[in-house]
């Protein structure tokens, strides 16, 4: 009985660790467009600070990679994606943020 309780506690601990540390900083953070929380939200691309992911509608389609430069006119300065504000900002204001912080 004690062994079963210990194994149960160990399994719960492992599940909690996976849930908390589910972020993969080596991945590209490509979202799942079948999840409603990812739809119509700009999501950081871990591999390129000038790009972000976009799920236009709920469904099984792949997300679209959008560039910050496509949002600005050619006369404006180039921008990077800020995951805190979920918007493209000038490089002078952009700061690197740990992907899994």
At CATH level 3, the topology is Antimicrobial Protein, Tachycitin, Chain A
Low-confidence stretches: none
How large is the share of residues in beta strands?
15-25%
What share of the residues lie within helices? 10-25%
Q: What value does the average pLDDT take? A: 84
Q: How far is the N terminus from the C terminus?
A: 39 Å
Secondary-structure class: alpha+beta
Largest beta sheet: strand ordering: 1-2-3
The coarse silhouette is elongated
Largest sheet: 3 strands, antiparallel
Q: Write the H/E string, N to C.
A: HEEEEE
Count every beta strand, where a strand is a DSSP E run of 2 or more residues: 5
- Indicate the radius of gyration in whole angstroms: 19 Å
Overall domain count: 1
Subunit arrangement of the protein: single chain
Q: Judging by the overall fold, what is the CATH architecture? A: Beta Complex
Give me the number of helical elements.
1
CATH class: Mainly Beta
Signal peptide: 1-19
Keywords: Signal
Question: How does this structure look, described?
Answer:
- The chain has about 100 residues and is of the alpha+beta class.
- It has one domain: Antimicrobial Protein, Tachycitin, Chain A.
- The chain contains 1 helix and 5 strands.
- Strands 1-2-3 form a 3-stranded antiparallel sheet, with no helix packed on it. It has a two-stranded antiparallel ribbon with strand order 4-5.
- Strand 1 and strand 2 form a beta hairpin.
- The termini are far apart.
- The mean pLDDT is about 85.
- Keywords: Signal.
């Amino acid at each position: 009985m004690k062994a079963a309780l210990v194994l149960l506690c160990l399994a719960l601990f492992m599940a909690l660790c996976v849930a908390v540390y589910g972020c993969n900083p080596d991945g590209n953070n490509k979202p799942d467009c079948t999840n409603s929380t990812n739809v119509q939200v700009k999501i950081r691309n871990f591999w390129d600070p000038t790009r972000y992911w976009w799920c236009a509608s709920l469904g099984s389609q792949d997300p679209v990679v959008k560039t910050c430069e496509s949002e600005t006119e050619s006369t404006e300065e180039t921008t990077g994606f800020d995951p805190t504000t979920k918007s493209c900002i000038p490089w002078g204001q952009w700061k690197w943020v740990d992907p899994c912080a």
